[in-house]
Prior knowledge:
Layout: E1 12-21, E2 29-38, E3 41-47, E4 57-62, E5 66-70, E6 72-73, H1 93-104, H2 109-124, E7 128-135, H3 145-156, E8 159-166, H4 185-199, E9 208-214, H5 222-235, E10 238-243, H6 247-257, H7 261-267, E11 275-279, H8 285-294, E12 297-300, H9 302-307, H10 315-321, E13 325-327, H11 341-351, H12 363-377, E14 395-399, H13 411-417, E15 423-428, E16 431-435, E17 438-439, H14 444-464
Parallel strand pairs: 1-4, 1-5, 6-7, 7-8, 8-9, 9-10, 10-11, 11-12, 12-13
Antiparallel strand pairs: 1-2, 2-3, 5-14, 14-15, 15-16, 16-17
Helix pairs in contact: 2-3, 2-14, 4-5, 11-12, 12-13
Amino acid sequence: MNRTDRTDCVDRIVIEDCAIATVDAQDTEHASGHVVVAGNRIESVGPGPAPRGLDGVARRIDGTGHLVTPGLVNTHHHFYQWLTRGLAQDHNLFDWLVELYPTWARIDEPMVYAAARGSLAMMVRGGVTTAMDHHYVFPRGAGDLLGAEIRAARELGVRFTAARGSMDLGSSDGGLPPDFAVETTEDALSATEEAIDTHHDGSFDAMLRIAVAPCSPFSVTTDLMRESSELARRKGVRLHTHGSETVEEEKFCHERFGMGPTDYFADTGWLGEDVWMAHCVHMNDADIAAFARTGTGVAHCPSSNARLAAGIARVPDLLAAGVPVGLGVDGTASNESGELHTELRNALLINRLGDHREKALTARQALRLGTHGGARVLGRGDEIGSLEPGKLADLVLWKLDGIGHSTIADPVAALVLGPAAPVTLSLVNGEPVVEAGRLLTADEDAIARDARDEARRLARIAAEG
């Protein structure tokens, strides 16, 4: 079945009289245009009203005062951290991890399910249509933690990449996490392969994909790094980890491996078009050239980088070199807002504090990072991330005619630089998941209550030791 077959004999949704930022290769925009969705695909996008005489129009939406963009794509997160927001407020990364690992090592399946629902709900109601999570803490006897996340994403109706993480380097062997928070190398690899075999869907319109994701150089053995890259390529899935986040990580790599993080990744098979790294704050010119040469992607997490005082990533230089770059919320213990649309603004502002100053990023580059850039990083640039006929119908209708945006004539600037824009409609795979700023797929009050209860239970268990 080709990409247009599914638009025959299906219900259509027509959105008209709205501003449109397609984020296609030409950055095509329409001051007043239309989008037609047929089934789970975008059928047409263009200026002016939709074509007349369309069959099966189930819904026609007046988009006056709105901007339509592709749905936002999150490329890095840790859902379980929803239960530990607001802790370790004034720590750098290593101290923050040491402070929180003992609590995180007490999580179980009900906790992860509640945290995933909270994390996903916050993102989805703010325009995220494709979510990603990197889960790497698997305490013994805690239940099916990855399955809990997958169940939550399915219930909320969001497209999801579940990165099955792992740690096998405990503190007694020179790693950062406590010994009781890590797996054996063999168990981690076996569980990761089982997750791929059970859940991964490689089809064009897949709602769920699995990635292989050892946590970081300071929590994973070299054997696990090498064997994970071999596993992912044997199974045809993507690879994800943290990289070059802090100066402490760089020092750790030099002391333990005799080389910097990028050289270590190259040595263990972790550079390539099927790989993306979170953060990449501390990279020199040679590191950036290696990422560009190999097509290795980057998940830029500006709020988390600031929260943990990690530094300012060289995003303008990464983009200029041709490195794929997307945006990430990161775990909500280091970005308590839990929202990706705020990262559009923060990416632009924080990067302007760097060497490139006002020339660092434009509003449209920031929007691209959060949409097509993220899709490319997740290996889905041909499927999502821009509004083009034949692509999957993941899109957001942002309301920009209220007081917060009323005097910003440029709708893209209003979205990126203005206050958080309300979501009038969000579609995932052609299905509404948000209307008038409220989730359609879950009870927000129940999600908040359940997450609060599980956070209290986790705190109680951690205090008891």
